[in-house]
Amino acid sequence: MPPDTLPPVLEARGLTRSYGAVTVVSDVSFTLAPGEALGVLGPNGAGKTTLLKMLSGDVRPSAGQVLFAGVSASDLPQAARCRAGLVRTSQIPQPFSGLTVWENTLTAALHGGGLHGADAEQAAHDALRRSGLLDRHALPAGQLSLMGRKRLELSRALACGPKVLLLDEIAGGLSDFEVQDLVALIREINTSGVAIIWIEHIVHALISVVSRLIALDFGRLIASGTPLEVLASDNFRRAYFGDEPPLELMP
Amino acid sequence: MPRILILAGLGLVLLSLPLWGSGYQQRSVVEFLYFLSLAMAWNLLAGYAGLVSIGQQAFVGIGAYALVVLAEDLGLNPFLTLPLAAAVAALAALPASWLLFRLQGAYFAVATWVIAEVLRLAANASIDWLGGGRGRAVRSLGGFERGLREDITFYAALALAAVAVAGAVWLLRSCTGLGLMAIRDSEPGAQAVGVETTRTKRRVYLFAAAITGAAGALIYITQINVRPDAAFSVNWAAYVIFIVVIGGIGTIEGPIIGTLIFLALREALSGLEGWSMLIFGAIAIAMMLFAPRGIWGLVTERWNIALFPIRRQMPARFIEKETT
Ligand SMILES: Nc1ncnc2c1ncn2[C@@H]1O[C@H](COP(=O)(O)OP(=O)(O)OP(=O)(O)O)[C@@H](O)[C@H]1O
Ligand SMILES: [Mg+2]
């Protein structure tokens, strides 16, 4: 079956989040097919991270719900969603800096992966190898470079055994070469069958992996469709460029 | 394995001490062992779970009063009350954790202290049952011949410290231990990799309360008289914080070294009365400023040693695969 006829692995239904009087995500709905890669675009403060955090369970929606594999995940805390295969990486990497790279990844395999003993070690090893950190397994995570920390976020997420991976600006702040490496890695993860939702400001990196885009502005879903459709849409152009016509939009 | 030999030798020396040591030496070692147990418990909280409590005296007092009630009112052998005091303290820690775990950082710390103060005042007020401000004595200890009493106390203290150290090592080497250290370094990160942060912290909090409660009962087996202002004194927290900070927070070896230094210093400063607390405080602050990882931290900076290895390394089978 082509992906769009499979039942969605993840679905957002009318997700809304307010802080006091301010609504930062407003009535956002979309679906994600198994194995699909979906990109999220939007200006700073559009509510992208908040949306992702509602999916992963660290922010409670003010309204709406999240369905994971067809069932409501609303009552599942973040750790339980992680164990079920809905895993998020952080916009600001959160290494366990007193632990080694190996211990960081093993913690994810034991807890998020729900594995024990040799199985957990195997999963941690595979995750480190895939994310290119195997040679740094004994390094304290606090000594990793920014790129190393981004890799560690991915390595830990992989060790949890994700079905859906939520990536929050994982390529932000990196050099072009590093972004290329990361894009290859994310593409490999996606082709191995993991569905991905990826927030990224680096449009050319994003659309080299994802097959579909959604765009947010002021917490609202303003466009959705193939990358070309979204990037060319009036709503999207207005959100980024105001009413002036862009000089050069296409990458 | 020299590490096993060192530990076995140490164990033999301690086990045989009542045979060759003086009464004074024996009592000093008991004191070392209960301070070590208290320090190990606090170190698990502050050094591994990021739960900085300044109210662990609540559980010293609960253990002490569990001893009084169980031995005097219910007629149990005072030494058999030790595991029960641990259970009572853990039971009391459960509702306390429901309250405390809603708080973070300094609020958590202050709330632990408030709880201990409330218990101290409550014990002061209960004249009929717990003896009010004058407290109560564990009279049934008088039924033991002195030498026998001191020997049993010694082995009970040894057992308690062994459980505290072995329990801490076992906990830290387990899946829970990695989860704990992850929480300490980044709580959002720990949650993101599936660590059940509240459950993990609660497990440690209850374990620390149990050890502290048993230590409380043991301390008052050696002192016989239980007074609320002494049993619930904030000094217990202050001493233990000093010990862990000096020795090296977040290590197993640190509290051992810290307890030795604390007892030696206390002996040296015993003539100074109130001034000694000031000196302890000054040393602790200097340590935090200039050697925040304590004496054991200084040692491990120079030599790569660990008496109790709790860290995980990638298994060798994976490394060999890489090179071939
Ligand atoms: N806990 C909070 N309390 C109050 N306001 C918040 C909170 N978290 C986020 N916000 C606000 O919600 C809005 C959306 O934040 P969010 O982090 O989701 O944006 P974003 O699209 O991820 O932005 P960026 O591209 O800069 O990462 C921002 O205006 C932010 O200030
Ligand atoms: Mg963001």
From TrEMBL, chain B:
Q: Which UniProt keywords apply?
A: Cell membrane, Membrane, Transmembrane, Transmembrane helix
Taken from the record, one Pfam family name reads: BPD_transp_2
Bilayer topology annotation: Multi-pass membrane protein
InterPro entries for this protein: ABC_transp_permease, LivM-like
TM ranges are 33-51, 82-101, 108-132, 152-172, 204-224, 236-265, 277-299
The residue stretches assigned to a coiled coil in this entry are none
Do the record's keywords include Transit peptide? Answer: no
State the compartments where it is located. Answer: Cell membrane
Q: Which domain of life is it from?
A: Bacteria
| GO molecular function terms listed in the Swiss-Prot or TrEMBL record | branched-chain amino acid transmembrane transporter activity
Q: Which GO terms describe its cellular component?
A: plasma membrane
What is the recorded name of this protein? Branched-chain amino acid ABC transporter permease
Protein's organism: Pseudotabrizicola alkalilacus
**Phylogenetic classification of the source organism:** Bacteria, Pseudomonadati, Pseudomonadota, Alphaproteobacteria, Rhodobacterales
